[in-house]
Amino acid sequence: QACISANAAICAGAEKIMTNHADVVLAGGAETFSDVPIRLTRPIRQKLIGLPKAMKKGGPLGGMRHMLKKLKLKDLGLETPAIANYTTGEVMGVSSDKLSAKFGVSRQEQDEFTVRSHSMAQQAHTDGWYNQEIVPYKGSREENGIKGDSTIESVSKLKPAFVKPHGTHTAANSSFLTDGAAMSLLMSEEKAKELGMKPLAYLRDWSFRACDPWQELLLGPTYCTSELLQRNNMSLNDLGVLEIHEAFAGQILSNLVAMNSDEFAKKNLDGQKIGDIDMSRLNVKGGSLAVGHPFGATGSRLVTTASRRLQDEDQRFALVAACADGGLGHACLLERYDG
């Protein structure tokens, strides 16, 4: 489930605890984009699979004939991974660019949100806020993707990266791929007391939804948030902490527009508009645009940051939400632990 795989692991772990199939669960994920698997082309792979049989029949010469038979020059290459949807064939940047156009999110707005993310992430690091959350690597907790000196002028100079030449998504206002790992520790309140641990938050409820991958690939957070709030009879006013994954500035801003749209709510959310997001509660320690997006780890990072913010900011409830490839989405409701 790509970007929400850690969220799925966390919720599956919670279900195991609730059904007495586990006492303590570690749930999270890791990603190593610096060493992605690079494959031979499919015709070469198929030839190699049949090579042992060909050599058994005809020896080395038979093996050579097998490898060269019907092989084309274009087959002699390598396949690098592409972050493309299996159904549409589009990379997520194209899908997000189209979504932004649909909801009227401008390049200027995306660049402004990008600078906000980097500035807030840099400030959080300067204040030492992440010291309790990041495991040091070679003695350092510094992120290597945060650009605290980013300005509207600097990011606005970049050319479109996906829809050329008139797209709005660039390398700056899109989250970058990076190595990373994150883990969340889950257990019942009774088990935590038994082990002498004080939890940060309760995981109260969650939602996983799928939406149209052709038109709304990255709009899952809106659908999941709507379901979560309606099921718990809550509104945005009840949520003091908001952590929403920043796959692209255009993606998260499109979701914010959809959440506050009467027309979208009437058509897709049973007329129940989510409302206008209070930006002072949203991703105030920076987000994926600044700290990067290791697919397997991001979900756990969001939950950890939201849980810690509940404690630090003395808020009762937090919303975590994220989109994912395939038109998938997730949202979960956290409550501050006081016990």
Question: If you had to describe this structure to a student in words, what would you say it looks like?
Answer:
- With 339 residues, the protein is of the alpha+beta class.
- The protein has helices at 5-18, 42-68, 92-102, 107-126, 152-155, 189-194, 220-231, 249-259, 262-268, 288-291, 295-312; strands at residues 24-31, 39-40, 78-79, 180-187, 201-210, 241-244, 317-324, 328-336.
- The strands form three sheets. The protein has a four-stranded mixed sheet, sandwiched between helices.
- Helix 7 (220-231) runs parallel beside helix 8.
- The longest helix is centred in the first third of the chain and has 27 residues, at 42-68.
Throw out a few tags for this protein.
4-stranded mixed β-sheet; alpha+beta; globular; single chain
Helix-strand blueprint:
Elements lengths: L4 H14 L5 E8 L7 E2 L1 H27 L9 E2 L12 H11 L4 H20 L25 H4 L24 E8 L1 H6 L6 E10 L9 H12 L9 E4 L4 H11 L2 H7 L19 H4 L3 H18 L4 E8 L3 E9 L3
Parallel strand pairs: 6-7
Antiparallel strand pairs: 1-4, 2-3, 5-8, 7-8
Helix pairs in contact: 1-11, 3-8, 7-8
